[in-house]
Amino acid sequence: MSKLAVTLRFVSGAELLIKDEFRAQSNKKSGDLEFKHEVPAGTEEAPLRMKELIEHVRDNLVKGDKDQFYKDGKLRPGILVIINGSDWEVEDGPEYKVQADDVIEFISTLHGG
Amino acid sequence: MCDVDTPEHKQPLDTRLERKRVPGKCIKCKTAKPNVTIRGCLYCKPCFVSASIVKFRGALKKSNSRIDAQRRQQNGVSEPQRLMVALSGGPSSTAMLHLVVDYQQSVTQRSGDFVQPPYADIVVGHIDESALFDVAEGAVRSIADGRTFCEASLEDIFSASADRDVLLQIVRASMASEQQQQNGGGFCAQIIRNSDNNTPPRERLRQLFSALDSDTSRESLLDAIRTFLLVRLARAHHCSVLLLGDSATRIATRVVSLTSCGRGFSLPFEIAPESSWFDGVTMIRPMRDFIAKEVAFFNRWAGYTSVVVPTFTTGAPVHASIDRLSETFVVGLDRDFASTVSTVCRTVQKLEPRADALAACPCIVCGMPAEPDAQDWRSRLTVGQAAAPALSSAGFDISSHLCYSCQNILHFSESGDRGGLVLPGFCVERIRDHAVSRPSASSDAEQHEALRRQVEQFFLNSDDEDDDCE
Questions:
Q1: GO molecular function terms here (chain B) (predicted)?
Q2: Which one of A112, B56, B154, B390 has the fewest beta carbons within 10 angstroms of its own beta carbon?
């Protein structure tokens, strides 16, 4: 299956959920995480949507308790997603079709991260 | 004149049409592609940032004018005050600091003429929590961006301060006897002088927190200590106004969690837009109209970086504490019903403290008003003669000086092998302050005088000791 390279950012507490091995790939000096990541691109009929990308992140990047990130088929409330600088809710939310080189950001707004 | 067809009357109709939303466009400029949706409204990036600034200033000005009116009533005049911004380094307080500095500058730079700035000075107040949590050193200081940075550490509550020796004084709370606990959870606590003065403050602080039974209690106590230190810091730097960065999401969460913790009596003070409960320091919450999402987007687009402020439940499951559970509840509801947070906040802003809450004596632990009959209310068991054996003669019964919620916190703590829980000296200070300030003309003057003398012993002896040392 072909791959799609996107930039992932985890900030404001969301980085605490990510496995330590990705910290080495990060180009940020502060606690924030930002790195290029390859995800399975999906097919022509079923291109990769945000929903699948989030599930990929949950399965491959999130450490420990996965419920902290994704529960009952939804991203945990309080975690915001920004796609190329815009709120994902003004894009198509979970239905958004991921493009190569997209910058996808996860921001935790929960108290204490 | 009453003819509705006159051109003048058509004007409002047009304006109304202009106000109409353009589908798929920003609600403000109606031309740009939107970048964010807040409570079902679409905004583009520039409109969102400017709307946030306007909203913040609106909330702050509203609070300022209410405080000014109060001051004029009391003193006849109202001068610009010194302002302290409570900065934890988290997203909301970071945004607040930048917004208030920006407001101050915008007023003074508006024209060439001299304009009186809204505040005499803006200083940053920060509580260092590194005794309990891992925090990146210097990260918060860099957010303050060169402003006067006043800092206090959590462990300061256990250390001597140059001007107030009484803080040296450490007291012990002894828990209710086993028999009482079995009899339906009656509460009884006394303080006696602490003989151990060798434990370093940091260690003492950690012991205090580890003695508590749950993260809910720990978070409550941390809140109380933080508030105490912030108020003291503001007073020490002559700031009569203290800005707190509680966002709307945070306030809605606190409403649920404080109510669940039994803090309903003091709730109006703890979530109010302005509160003057603490003498000489008015607290304002100018971020009260921002939901957490707005704060996150504002910081991102304005280019402000914040830090993660850990709590006892960082990374813990949702049921780790009442506060975390309340947050999950509120935030979860808000996702499916976009106005939950603002509806809760609007509703609770109408809460007014009861007259007896305004007159109540402060709880010696949290400093908030303590319901006078919290103990009776809690259980029909009162501390009478039956409990006397548990109280040593040197002790001072503090049960009636604790609010219901703090009674709970202490009640379920473990005293361990130290023979009691070592409470910070400000607890005794609060009893004394109250004893001194209360009018002695009241009917229980005699009783009051006895109380004062009893509390004095905690301080007088400490002075004697100091003299000996010298």
A1: nucleotidyltransferase activity; sulfurtransferase activity; tRNA binding
A2: B390
